[in-house]
Specification:
This protein has helices spanning about 40-50, 105-115, 150-165, 180-185, 210-220, 225, 235-240, 245-260, and strands spanning about 35-40, 60, 60-65, 65-80, 80-90, 95-100, 120-125, 135-145, 230-235, 265, 270-275. By secondary structure, it is α+β, with helices and mostly antiparallel strands. Keywords: DNA replication, DNA-binding, Nucleus.
Length: about 280
């Protein structure tokens, strides 16, 4: 499937913060204004780790927090409170872990069952701070159903690397172009490139979102929500939406946004933060 193993030759690297997916455990205390979501190949991840400075990974001269990878599952394992995957994207292999719980719903367990060997997955997460390990601590994993997404991911990696090394730099307001028909073809909007400003809170709609999902993302991208490590709660979302939506509608929309990589849970299952923060 990968005709692009050479994409790793960009020599770019990746950085990220520690922390579990879905909780605050082990979370690095980052300035939220510096958090980004960067698309990487696994070779870029390895290159970044080889030049690691303490707990900091640098790519193209920029510190990276959250990352997204796409790869084929080679094997899975379950140990205690973590579920592990080894993935291969044609440029290298990486270990991915995500927190699990005995209280997980049947839907969450069903999703994990889909992450079997031979399937392609997209991972959103950050890099372990412990020692020089390269484990990716995921806050969201989903199966890839359209293999155009694999090609799209590599193109994102190239675009972001070239933009940061050959032009664009830190110009405020610049952002990676969203995936065409993002939800249908790629399952989510293109993540912001490291060093780019987060999308403005007003009128957030990268494409493929429903009206309620777009409204909720506007709330999650508000300055106070981005500035808080915990993000905002479901109750706060209900209050700020002015009674336009019911609790059931909000929870369903938040779950969909989380599954598509737009949101991730923070201190508990009721608090969420935008991946664009």
């Amino acid at each position: 499937m990968y005709g692009g193993g050479g994409f790793g030759e960009t020599g770019a690297s990746q950085q990220a913060g520690g922390g579990g997916g879905g909780g605050a455990s082990g979370k690095k205390n980052y300035d939220s204004k510096q958090q980004t979501l960067r698309a990487l190949t696994i070779k870029q991840l390895h290159d970044a780790n080889s030049t690691r400075q303490d707990d900091t990974l640098l790519l193209d001269g920029k510190e990276i927090t959250n990352v997204t990878l796409v790869g084929k599952v080679l094997s899975t394992s379950e140990s205690g409170l973590t579920f592990g995957l080894k993935i291969d994207d044609g440029t290298g292999k990486a270990d991915v872990k995500i927190w699990i719980s005995e209280d997980d719903s049947e839907l969450e367990k069903q999703r994990r069952a889909e992450w079997r060997a031979g399937m392609y997955v997209r991972v959103h997460g950050h890099i372990s701070n412990f020692g020089r390990t390269q484990d990716v601590l995921a806050f969201n994993i989903r199966t890839v159903t359209d293999h155009n997404e694999v090609t799209y991911h590599f193109l994102q990696c190239i675009f972001q690397h070239v933009h940061l090394t050959k032009g664009g730099g830190d110009q405020a307001g610049a952002a990676a172009a969203p995936a065409p028909a993002a939800q249908g073809a790629y399952g989510g909007a293109a993540p912001a490139v490291a060093g780019y400003a987060a999308p403005a809170a007003a009128g957030y709609n990268p494409g493929g979102l429903t009206a309620i999902q777009s409204d909720l993302m506007t709330l999650f991208n508000a300055p106070d929500a981005q500035a808080s490590d915990a993000g905002i709660s479901i109750d706060a979302v209900l209050s700020r939406s002015g009674g336009r939506y019911s609790l059931v509608q909000v929870r369903e929309a938040v779950e969909a946004l989380q599954n598509e990589g737009h949101l991730y849970s923070t201190i508990d299952e009721h608090h969420f933060k935008s991946c664009n923060a």
